[in-house]
């Protein structure tokens, strides 16, 4: 039987009246969560094949996932960031039954017989789909791996703002359950609410994307918030500027780590606060974690190892094969991995087709004292020919486009890095997982053009 399901069942049984979830002002104990799982398990008695969960953050998301997996069902977690066509495509491709979480919890509870539990559990996650129709990623072994990594504890409180239908939020919540810890679960991210949660619930660990970290660091409430309970702040999911990382290290007393992973391979590299005392490592995502391998091929990062997906739905299993990540990077002399950009975000500009990593320009803009947030992407050149570097920034003090363009030229030393134009906005749009939505920013520029790059 599945080691993951056995561990989950044990923790739900032993947790008793300890709080598992604190969500929207309501506490759900381990005992109550176990009963919800048993109710959903009953409600799924006649269901077969693939089931889909498409919901905002609530405890029932992971509890339904566990109950369905106990039934031997494959679970499709529909990404919160997915468009309506992408949602429909994922359901059609898998033939999944879309679950009604409220209806399932009204069933009479029944406890799974341990002998009936499957040997493995399966979850399907869509890719980001930034370059077309999302692929579907099948994960199996990673859940038993989590059951070995997360051991009983009961002393920690994890704050989760990432969607539970994405790998980051899903793993954080299930990891806390497997450890007997508490999850403070938020449906939406809000910097002020997050700071209040840290102080009120004595949060010990949380994860943030760079844009959400920036919102926390810039919040006027930060100065008056007691952060002493935080033992680990994990950063990832998007490029992070060295300036913001240095700020986070100062604010959170060095208890900051950065990770690199993909939905296909959630754990690839990591770096902890103690390693970041050397300034040159601030631009690194860390060393490759045990059980994983990585190499560089023509500038692109390739990976393989224990945290790898089984494969894409409808394609052969990846096995021991190398996965092309789509990320450009290099290793330094100490073995630390430095990422330059996503291949899709490299802007090809100028008469000679010079390649400009968008993150290089973004980090340079963020180093300007007046810039709080920046997004850089390609827009069509005159007549729709070629690409130009375009920037959108959020500022904290008065500056001009000319000043920022000169700053980029001075710091990077080449005219091809300089944005052709700089737009000023109040805030950058974010995806539900907290990444800057470059596609939304770029769409108006590419309307009417055959090539669409975001």
From TrEMBL:
Any Pfam family from its record, for instance, is: AMP-binding
> Which intervals hold domain AMP-dependent synthetase/ligase?
111-313
> What domain of life?
Bacteria
Query: Which regions span the lipid bilayer?
Result: none
Annotated AMP-binding enzyme C-terminal domain ranges read 361-435
Query: Which PANTHER family is this protein grouped with?
Result: 2-SUCCINYLBENZOATE--COA LIGASE, CHLOROPLASTIC_PEROXISOMAL, ACYL-COA SYNTHETASE
What is the protein name stated in its UniProt record? AMP-binding protein
**Which lineage?**
Bacteria, Bacillati, Actinomycetota, Actinomycetes, Pseudonocardiales
């Amino acid at each position: 039987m599945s080691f993951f399901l056995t561990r989950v069942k044990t923790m739900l049984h032993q947790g008793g009246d300890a709080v598992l979830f604190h969500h929207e002002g309501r506490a759900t104990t381990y005992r109550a969560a176990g009963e919800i799982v048993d109710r959903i398990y009953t409600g799924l008695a006649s269901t077969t094949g693939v089931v889909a969960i498409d919901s905002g953050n609530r405890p029932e998301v992971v509890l339904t996932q566990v109950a369905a997996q106990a039934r031997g069902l494959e679970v499709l977690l529909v990404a919160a960031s997915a468009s309506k066509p992408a949602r429909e495509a994922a359901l059609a491709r898998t033939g999944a039954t879309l679950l009604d979480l409220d209806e399932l919890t009204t069933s009479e509870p029944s406890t799974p017989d341990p002998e009936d539990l499957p040997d493995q559990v399966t979850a399907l996650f869509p890719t980001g789909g930034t370059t077309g129709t999302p692929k579907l990623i099948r994960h199996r072994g990673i859940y038993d791996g989590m059951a070995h990594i997360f051991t009983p504890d009961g002393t920690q409180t994890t704050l989760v703002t990432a969607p539970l239908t994405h790998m980051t939020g899903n793993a954080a919540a299930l990891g806390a359950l497997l450890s007997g810890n508490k999850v403070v679960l938020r449906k939406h991210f809000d910097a002020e609410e997050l700071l209040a949660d840290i102080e009120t619930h004595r949060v010990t660990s949380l994860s943030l994307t760079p844009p959400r970290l920036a919102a926390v660091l810039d919040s006027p409430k930060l100065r008056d918030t007691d952060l002493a309970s935080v033992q680990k702040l994990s950063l990832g999911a998007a490029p992070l500027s060295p300036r913001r990382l240095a700020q986070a290290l100062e604010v959170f007393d060095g208890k900051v780590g950065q990770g690199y992973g993909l939905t296909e391979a959630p754990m690839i590299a990591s770096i902890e606060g103690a390693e970041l005392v050397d300034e040159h490592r601030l631009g690194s995502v860390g060393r490759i974690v045990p059980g994983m391998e990585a190499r560089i091929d023509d500038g692109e990062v390739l990976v393989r190892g224990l945290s790898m997906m089984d494969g894409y739905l409808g394609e052969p299993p990846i096995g021991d094969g190398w996965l092309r990540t789509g990320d450009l990077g290099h290793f330094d002399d100490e073995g630390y991995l430095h990422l330059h950009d996503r291949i899709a975000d490299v802007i090809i500009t100028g008469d000679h087709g010079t390649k400009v990593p968008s993150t290089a320009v973004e980090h340079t803009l963020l180093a300007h004292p007046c810039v709080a947030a920046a997004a850089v992407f390609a827009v069509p050149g005159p007549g729709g020919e070629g690409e130009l570097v375009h920037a959108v920034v959020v500022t904290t003090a008065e500056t001009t486009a000319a000043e920022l363009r000169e700053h980029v030229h001075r710091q990077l030393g080449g005219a091809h890095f300089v944005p052709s134009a700089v737009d000023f906005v109040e805030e950058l749009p974010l995806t539900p997982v907290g990444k800057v939505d470059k596609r939304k920013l770029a769409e108006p520029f590419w309307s009417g053009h055959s090539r669409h790059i975001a």
